[in-house]
Write a structure and sequence with these properties.
By secondary structure, this protein is of the alpha+beta class. The chain has 14 helices and 6 strands.
Length: 478
């Protein structure tokens, strides 16, 4: 239990750091409060549990049985007549309970945390960045503005030699303001940015404004204003406007098993109805004219037209220019038909993509629990075989095995997402590959195989070389 809890916390921490690195642009520079960051970490931790749990089980089981083998406790138990399966039985029951708990976690806790997590991520993305105007470079952190400051007093906050480009109304109506000095303040509600400028000028292009106001082509170049003191109010909301979790209610990551099955069934019926309507439209309106015919009527029309004429007699009755026009007309209709089919496929792809995403999430809830069992039956026999405890060899082997699992699982996921494979095949690919490995390692550990013993492999190598030399000598004699 101690090893499992420790490895689980370490795995969660490592995966959480990776997730934070991926979302660093959504957090850094936004002036987010500590409680919001803690909330983000809680939701992110729940998100990485499906990856951390199998890895922790693999590492903890490998270290546990590696320690037992290194201290010859497994040898003592086996010499007393206790088989490896009897030794593994209590932990097997424990891992079975963890697998059941993992399913309930992925079915109830994970959808709610995913909805809260992504709603918070969207909110952070929309939040304005924290105001930090640099020195001697243009600052574009305010939408529609570019601000340049040559010098800034860090003690008083007074900025000198300021230049402000305002293109919030479009580049054609841009205005430029220069000032000897100025200060930046936020309004009391933190929704606006107040610039207090001293001793400067502003230039504003009036060409487009004048033409829109009067409708004439007479142009006024620009307006120049000199001021000793001026205030500029800029819309710059620094508050975190939280998105409601309802924006995620129709997303696959925020649904449990029953909701996923219901969505798959309902959208599948809509997709089938749409496909049937498209096929009916193709048959009725494009092959037999605009009249709508039943299936029996369509068969009667086909039988009636079957012997009326042949292609050769029809071509012989037409002039060469009529044949060319007929062929061109057929080509145009075929292209139009091809475009219509491509358009129908695009219209159906939205439904199919929606269904695939929900099917992937449905299978993922079961593959998590199964992966916990598989990794236990890989880690425990592997630890009994290598007989190495501690944090050295077990960590190396666990990381290598988990990388293989992650690559295979990610490959299957992408195959399922792109509809290259059926969803069930892509999502269960990693389990299908690792399950035979777990069975093989369990068998080898139960039979006391020296799978990782260098002497065994040296003997196999020497025996193979000896056989090759013997056969080579026999061939030379012949």
């Amino acid at each position: 239990m101690g090893l499992f809890i420790l490895t689980f916390m370490i795995c969660c921490f490592i995966l959480l750091m990776q997730l934070l690195w991926m979302r660093i642009n959504d957090i850094v520079g936004k002036g987010v409060e500590i409680k919001v960051l803690l909330e983000f970490l809680v939701y992110a931790t729940a998100t990485v549990v499906p990856l951390a749990l199998p890895l922790a089980i693999l590492l903890a089981s490998l270290m546990t049985f590696g320690n037992l083998g290194e201290k010859f406790e497994l040898t003592a138990m086996k010499s007393a007549g206790v088989s490896l399966f009897r030794i593994m039985r209590p932990l097997t029951i424990f891992i079975g309970l963890i697998s059941v708990g993992a399913f309930f976690f992925s079915n109830h806790v994970l959808p709610a945390s995913q909805a809260k997590f992504w709603a918070l991520v969207f909110s952070l993305r929309q939040k304005s960045p924290e105001l930090d105007i640099p020195v001697a470079e243009f600052y574009n952190g305010i939408q529609g503005y570019n601000i340049y400051v040559r010098q800034k007093n860090p003690r008083t906050g007074l900025m000198q030699d300021m230049m402000i480009y305002d293109y919030s109304n479009g580049f054609e109506n841009a205005s430029v303001t220069v000032a000897d000095s100025g200060r930046v303040f936020f309004t009391s509600d933190n929704r606006y940015l107040l610039l207090r400028l001293y001793n400067g000028e502003s230039f504003e292009n009036l060409d487009q404004q004048q033409q829109r106001a009067t409708g004439s082509q007479e142009s006024v170049p620009y307006r120049r204003e000199m001021f000793a003191y001026k205030q500029v109010l800029i819309d710059f909301n620094t508050e975190l406007n939280r998105f409601d979790e309802s924006v995620m209610q129709d997303q696959h990551v925020s649904k449990d098993v029953s909701q996923l099955i219901q969505s798959i069934d309902s959208v599948g019926k809509l997709s089938a109805e749409r496909a049937h309507a498209q096929g009916e439209d193709m048959v009725q309106n494009r092959f037999f004219g605009r009249e709508r015919l039943t299936g029996r009527e369509l068969g009667a029309v086909a039988d009636e037209r079957k012997g009326e004429f042949s292609l050769s007699t029809l071509r012989a009755s037409l002039r060469s220019d009529q044949v060319r026009r007929a062929l061109q007309s057929a080509i145009d209709k075929a292209r139009a038909q091809q475009d219509q089919i491509a358009y129908n496929a695009i219209m159906l792809e939205d439904y199919n993509s929606y269904i695939r995403k929900h099917q992937i999430e449905l299978h993922r809830k079961y593959t998590l629990s199964f992966a916990c069992l598989i990794f236990f039956f890989i880690g425990a026999p592997l630890g009994a075989i290598i007989r190495k405890g501690g944090l050295g060899a077990p960590i190396v082997i666990s990381v290598a095995m988990f990388i293989v699992y992650y690559i295979i699982d990610n490959t299957g996921y992408k195959m399922a997402r792109e509809a290259i494979w059926p969803v069930w095949r892509g999502m269960w690919l990693s389990s299908a590959v690792l399950l035979p490995i777990g069975i093989f390692l369990t068998y080898k550990a139960a039979t006391d195989s020296g799978l990782f013993n260098p002497e065994v492999w040296i003997k196999i190598y020497e025996k193979t070389i000896a056989n090759i030399k013997t056969k080579w000598i026999k061939l030379r004699k012949h």
